[in-house]
Specification:
The structure is a homodimer of 698-residue chains. Chain A is α/β, with parallel strands linked by helices. In chain A, strands 10-9-11-12-14-13 form a 6-stranded parallel beta sheet, sandwiched between helices. Chain A has a 5-stranded parallel beta sheet with strand order 1-2-3-7-6, with helices on both faces. In chain A, helix 1 packs across helix 11, helix 13 crosses helix 18 and helix 18 crosses helix 19. The termini of chain A are far apart. Chains A and B meet through helix 6, helix 7, helix 8, helix 14 and helix 16 of A and helix 6, helix 7, helix 8, helix 14 and helix 16 of B.
């Protein structure tokens, strides 16, 4: 080990240990153990431009073991990213750019938000997919615009998580040759030795997945790490795992113990560590001048790399102006003009259609204008209607394939979609049954936290799916997804609302891959629903506003013929009762409303409320106009009642489902569990009758 | 294949195909393909008593691929379980005993609720753990009371799911020699050939996990299946996977296609199938007399097995009366007298204590009286305080170990806990951070659906956990867990409430393994909380009722000294404002309440509300007494506001957190995001001030 290598690696180790000590919180063990391999990777291999962290063709680096965040912050600082040393001194403090675990929307150069284990590994798989897809789309003979690696450092914990197992199986299946994962095999987890819980043969497992596996016995052997990375790079057709035997908390008295994992070393052990590795005890946060220069050279190198790439882009533009324009548009995260012009409009006279079917039509109407709208399903493509007709499946041999068979791997799908979005250039979507959103919920949460533009196509959205029964019938899922901050949940009532939902979903991309308006859930029916009787314009505005008056009171309509985009202002139209509903229950409310008008002389408004989050963003005037404060209200949704008090008020009634479903034909399941016209009418009558309600409904 | 074998297997095949056809819904493919292996297993190996489905020492059989439910229903019917043919004719109909996917609480002989893939596999791991633990506890030389296998049939989809990967790694690690999984390797999933997404070497993967692997090339070769099962049984020290190459929809024109998977064959294909396999076209649901006799012999055989076992139990009782009494108590799902007598009481003068620490003390206080209370953590034992002091870790060599190192495998932990509970004789608990409940949510839902007695110890329950930041700070989790039907979520406010929460959690077991009061979540603080100033009795009743008056208005108390178990009835005590809060926010409300009384002359009641579900079960009188309808209310909880309108009413205010958290020291994170005394006081003043509230808060 040359002096400068040694110095650089120890700088990384002690920046981490000092920062954790200063914060009195954090994880020194991983940075100290994995500093050498990270250094080799960053110094010898990683092609990036610290001055241009979003350069499209940079190599991606994901620290899947996010608890080792200080290792990443140290690397970013030393290689010249916009992360001043004061930020490292403020590690884990409120408002700093150095949160406890890396957050991609907070810190330039952080490629993925990690910490929940296994996620970063799955993100890396998604990034490698995105790279390969974009390479297939844009590269031309003599013009290799997209050509970069995705590297990840992952831990025992990452590889114990099922999401990583799924993602590894998928990556091996797809033969993602430019994915290289370094496994920080330190044989220690929080409970103690990994012998306590993790004695499988990881390397053999990855070979079984179809990965190339390298083994480095000494994680501080820079040449061995370097050689392994070169071997991995040479494997063009399969992903590579490099298992590197490291020592957690290397150099400290707590080395090779769980004590080094998640707590500061403590003053005494920190001093002892520095003494053992020949490091000055003071000052803290020491960066030798030669290390600053040596590792800081990444900035010059990186500027050269990105400059060369921009020259390649110029040459490309000369020969492939349209593709170049498309690529540059993607880099700006912009949609092409007229991207939504092919979206269909369904006539009310058309046959009833499941919203999942309408969603499939919307996807196909968008696919032409949005060539990097890609996605698929967790082995439910025929049910989720997620297939782009005529496009090939993405596979080991078909890198430009837009249809993804994720397998029965919802969680890997979620993490992979995040990686595709994080990579940039792609609008990814993924489908499964709504109930199985539970299987990928941790990934969905990270998409929301990071503001990723990911679209979830979640079909079979209620007990209306029928015979599969309560194991497959979502009940609490709509509400528990609404509970996730920055996640937009849209449950359209018919085919046209579904088209609008897609328009909104596509439009929610941000100006960068992270920090945008966040992911969108489309909750879609298995069963056919009538096309509502409205014209497209008010519905379009209405869906965009989250809720709107679909049927005005006194209209006499059984459909929505008399609805106006804004509620009518004249007293004549003032409703005596408001139904508010989502998805398949909207049509039920229309029928019940018409009956209440005809048979009971009530003036009934029906509000379609496909999206809580969008409605909540509206000005108070609009919200009050749609849901007048003093009018009795009944909410109808085939899911848990929890939360609906927000919109119906304490005096309102909620027709929901606070139990699990039942195996029966869908229509019967709905009717038996209360979602029938008689019961909705009864709720309406009760809402109007009840004057002295109970404040608590539980 | 002998005639009777042939007839029996075809009976299973066509019972399934006929039932799916009749229901016009379901999955004929798996039963037709896997009937032979299931038949061999049930006919030659499975030790069970159809007349006594809950016989403790029966072999367990889990159909992890729950969509093949008709195979299981066929087996149950033919071997003499209480499942009449009319139930098979009513497959997937409302109220039948034959729901679309098997539900353990519905159908006698169904050992696990399956359908969501991978779960049953994990349940089987838990059952094998339970068997081994109980064997270690109860078996004595010459007295082998507990000695049975756990068998599972699983599909491609099961083995693609991360939860199964995690569980397989755990099972291999633990060396569960009596776990035998038959893999129905039919090479077809919903999207088509498994080549589309699943090309890994499954057998090599399981070998990497430390499993014994058998391969059967022809799933209809009964001798080969039988031999493989015998080989697997002979492997006493490691679990076994038997990969059986089968043909989905065997015998039908749709054989080996995805069309055979999830839809009725259709009249023509059904007829063609029967013709091809030499089966009478009529009547449907045909059971040849000789098959009924042949397979029905399981009933006599089973009665003999369980009879012999009861004789063994008698002999055991004579020599080990105490252990026998304990075993019989477990079989009755009863708790021993005085089981809770060692639970601690903490004095208000004691030092502040994190509720996770109090939970650790409660576990240890219960461990003596409840020798089959066993559990552990997903690699967070030191943080979750889940370790039973002095008890060994459960391991390959220590079968009586009560402490489980589940590894960083939350999902497998969830599925395994379910299996332990389904097995019976065990009260299982598992710990992780509250945020990582997302990783095991599908298992938690199935525990709730099935009514399993599982206890989740979920610590680090708010942004108060601090520096780890938003990736680790739960925000929406309390509410999204409350949204799951039949799941009881308790968030205690201090050490004593935590003890009561444990008392409740232990007491919620049912009379059988399934269909009880369901699982319990304990949401516990990382940070220390003061011991509230109350005596144990009213708090005990109060926690059991879900919410109670901790501080009465006008008491002048900063603690809860003046609280009474029931709210005071005299007008003098009528509050002008009610704070309701859970967990760590209760103490904050006490301080704010005292300040509002002292500085603003308000009469402030503070309600501690550790459990919504228990409070909702109370009589209206009690609920109104605790939360008087016409008094302004403020709810305070460091989580999303969604849902709190239920308790504060439309005029109430909610101090919550509708955003992700922030990396900062816990106290600072709480204070910065609004959970400080000043802000609570401000909310209190606003609640009293506001008279014309907006009906919608969003």
């Amino acid at each position: 080990m040359s002096t400068i290598d040694d110095l650089s690696i120890n700088t990384l180790r002690f920046l981490a240990a000092d920062a954790v000590e200063q914060a009195n919180s954090g994880h020194p063990g991983l940075p100290m153990g994995a500093a050498a391999m990270a250094y080799v990777l960053w110094q010898n291999h990683l092609r990036h431009d610290p001055s241009d962290p979003k350069w499209l063709d940079r190599d991606r680096f994901v620290l899947s073991a996010g608890h080792g965040s200080m290792l990443l912050y140290g690397l970013l600082h030393l290689t010249g990213y916009d992360l001043p040393i004061d930020q490292l001194r403020n590690f884990r403090q409120f408002g700093s750019l150095t949160p406890g675990h890396p957050e991609a929307h907070i810190t330039a150069g952080v490629e993925a938000t990690t910490g929940p284990l296994g996620q970063g590994f799955g993100n890396a798989v998604g990034m490698a997919i995105a790279e390969r897809f974009l390479a297939a789309r844009f590269n031309r003979p003599g013009h290799t615009l997209i050509d970069h690696y995705t590297y990840a450092i992952c831990s025992d914990g990452d590889l114990m998580e099922g999401v990583a197992s799924e993602a590894a199986s998928l990556a091996g299946h797809l033969g993602l040759g430019k994915l290289i994962a370094l496994y920080d095999d330190n044989e220690i987890s929080i409970d103690g030795s990994t012998d306590l819980a993790f004695t499988e043969d990881v390397e053999a497992r990855f070979e079984a997945y179809g990965w190339h596996v390298e083994h480095v016995e000494d994680g501080n052997d820079l040449d061995a790490v370097d050689a392994a990375i070169r071997e991995a790079q040479a494997e063009a057709d399969v992903p590579s795992l490099i298992a590197v035997r490291t020592h957690i908390g290397f150099g400290s008295p707590k080395q090779d113990t769980a004590d080094a994992h998640g707590s500061p070393l403590g003053e005494a052990a920190l001093i002892a560590s520095k003494e053992r590795l020949g490091w000055p005890l003071a000052p803290r946060f020491l960066i030798p001048v030669e290390v600053a220069r040596h590792m800081g050279a990444a900035k010059t190198r990186g500027a050269g790399l990105s400059h060369t790439w921009r020259e390649k882009l110029e040459a490309y533009r000369a020969e492939e102006p349209e593709l170049a324009a498309e690529l540059e548009r993607l880099m700006r995260h912009e949609l092409p003009g007229g991207w939504d012009s092919a979206l269909p409009v369904f006539e009310a006279s058309a046959k009833p259609m499941a919203t999942r079917a309408a969603s499939g039509k919307a996807i196909n109407a968008l696919a032409g204008a949005l060539p990097t709208l890609i996605g698929g399903s967790a082995d439910l493509a025929p049910s989720n209607n997620t297939t782009i007709t005529g496009a090939p499946a993405h596979s080991r041999d078909e890198h430009g394939g837009r249809n993804f068979h994720f397998g029965v791997r919802e969680h890997a799908m979620g993490a992979t979609l995040n990686g595709m979005a994080l990579h940039g250039g792609i609008i990814p979507y993924g489908g499964t049954f709504l109930i199985f959103s539970d299987y990928m919920r941790p990934s969905m949460r990270l998409a929301a936290l990071t503001g990723l533009h990911v679209i979830y196509v979640l079909t079979h959205d209620s007990i209306g799916l029928g015979e599969d029964g309560p194991t497959h019938q979502p009940v609490e899922h709509l509400m528990s997804l609404r509970a996730i901050p920055h996640l937009t949940v849209i449950r359209p009532a018919d085919a046209n609302e579904t088209v609008e939902a897609w328009r909104i979903a596509i439009g929610r991309g941000g100006a960068t891959a992270t920090g945008g308006k966040g992911p969108v859930v489309l909750a879609l029916s298995r069963q056919n629903l009538p096309i509502l009787d409205t014209n497209a314009a008010p519905m379009r505005d209405g869906v965009a506003r989250g809720a709107y008056v679909l049927r005005e009171a006194g209209s006499g309509a059984t459909g929505a013929a008399a609805a106006s985009p804004e509620p009518a202002g004249d007293a004549h139209a003032a409703p005596g009762l408001v139904f508010l509903a989502t998805g398949s229950e909207v049509e039920l409310c229309l029928r019940a409303g018409a009956r209440l008008e005809a048979e009971h002389g009530l003036r009934v408004r029906v509000v379609s409320m496909p999206c809580w989050e969008l409605f909540a963003e509206q000005p108070q005037d609009y919200r009050r106009a749609v849901l007048p404060p003093d009018v009795p209200k009944v909410a109808v949704e085939a899911g848990v009642t929890l939360g609906w008090e927000r919109w119906v008020g304490a005096d309102g009634l909620i027709l929901g489902l606070d139990r699990f479903g039942a195996s029966a034909p869908g229509k019967e399941a709905l009717e038996r569990l209360g979602f029938n016209e008689d019961n909705v009418v009864e709720f309406g009558l009760r809402a109007v009758r009840d004057v002295a309600p109970e404040p608590t409904l539980g």
